[in-house]
Design brief:
The protein has one domain: 3-Layer(aba) Sandwich (Rossmann fold), CATH 3.40.50. It has seven helices and twelve strands. It has helices spanning 61-69, 93-99, 116-131, 141-154, 172-186, 202-215, 254-263; strands at residues 22-31, 36-45, 50-54, 74-83, 86-87, 101-104, 111-115, 165-166, 190-194, 221-226, 239-244, 247-252. A hairpin with a 2-residue loop joins strand 11 and strand 12 (247-252). The chain is globular, with a radius of gyration of 18 Å. It starts with 21 loop residues before the first strand and ends in an 18-residue tail after the last helix. The relative contact order is 0.19.
Length: 281
């Protein structure tokens, strides 16, 4: 999610023949101290598809999510991230968001003093400005209000949350519903959900999952990062990838998630990898 307006001037030399909307190629990611966490990931995610990345704690799943979004604490040392034919490596997080990448956080931060409505309108206007060559193109108030109220109704987000400060005093379920509301309003091309099921009771989980299912379609794809199979009972993935030790070690269909639930990750952990990424998420 972008922090402010940024005109995208990605060089045309970075454009290439498109295979999938989001292409991750041989991606290596290190912490600021040089510790390598992600160790050569290849992944292709398109619209109208749901990919699940499942892995044990400490496997590097959240590091991958933050690196895709351009978090400055994570250095990409090798490989490439291509969205809609353009490399994202030289783009800041806000420019990546404006090109259509979205990250729903595992632990969304509160922003006291900024209402949900103000935050969403500012984010939408930043995207519109970037798409308009850096010239202001604010969304009409009536259009914004109509769309916001419609999305809140569809996603069963209580209307009173719109005038509350973003995530300030929100329950875990409210925070996650508002993350999905942001997805609905910002209309990303690829949404990354980092352990969105964390801390949710079953009712909140169902509502969040219904929102993801509603939004993924011809204009949007999703990468769902999770430790447990629970959310995948409601968001059926088209592809499941097992992530261990900073690598994708197996891929398959929805049946792979059920296998993991029944058998655990032990069978997928290569000798010498267990504990290798300990301390990462």
């Amino acid at each position: 999610m972008g922090s402010g307006p940024c005109v995208d001037n990605a060089p045309t030399r970075n454009r290439r023949t498109l295979v999938a909307l989001l292409e991750i190629t041989n991606l290596h990611v290190a912490l600021e101290d040089g510790t390598e966490i992600v160790k050569g990931v290849d992944l292709a995610v398109d619209t109208n598809s749901k990919h699940a990345i499942m892995g044990p704690n400490g496997s590097g799943k959240s590091t991958l999510a933050y690196a895709l979004m351009g978090h400055p604490a994570y250095e990409i040392t090798e490989g490439d991230i291509v969205l809609d034919g353009v490399s994202l490596l030289d783009l800041e997080a806000d420019a990546r968001a404006q090109r259509g990448l979205f990250l729903a956080f595992q632990y969304p931060h509160a922003i006291p003093g900024v209402t949900v409505t103000s935050f969403l309108r500012s984010a939408i206007n930043a995207k519109r400005k970037a798409a308009n060559g850096g010239e202001d193109d604010p969304v009409p108030v009536k259009e914004f209000r109509t769309e916001l109220l419609g999305a809140m109704e569809d996603l069963r987000v209580p209307r009173e949350l719109a005038q509350r400060y973003l995530n300030d005093g929100f329950s875990g379920g409210e925070k996650k519903r508002v993350e999905i509301l942001q997805m609905a309003m910002l209309k990303p091309r690829i949404a990354i959900l980092d352990e969105t099921d964390s801390g949710l009771d079953i009712d909140a989980l169902r509502i969040v999952a219904e929102g993801v299912n509603q939004l993924v379609g011809p204009e949007m794809g999703a990468l769902v990062i999770t430790h447990y199979q629970r959310i995948l009972n409601y968001v059926t993935p088209d592809h499941v990838h097992v992530f261990v030790g900073g690598r994708v070690v197996a891929s398959g269909g929805a049946e792979l998630a059920h296998q993991l639930e029944a058998e655990g990750y032990e069978a997928f952990i290569p000798a010498g990898v267990a504990g290798e990424a300990e301390g990462t998420a």
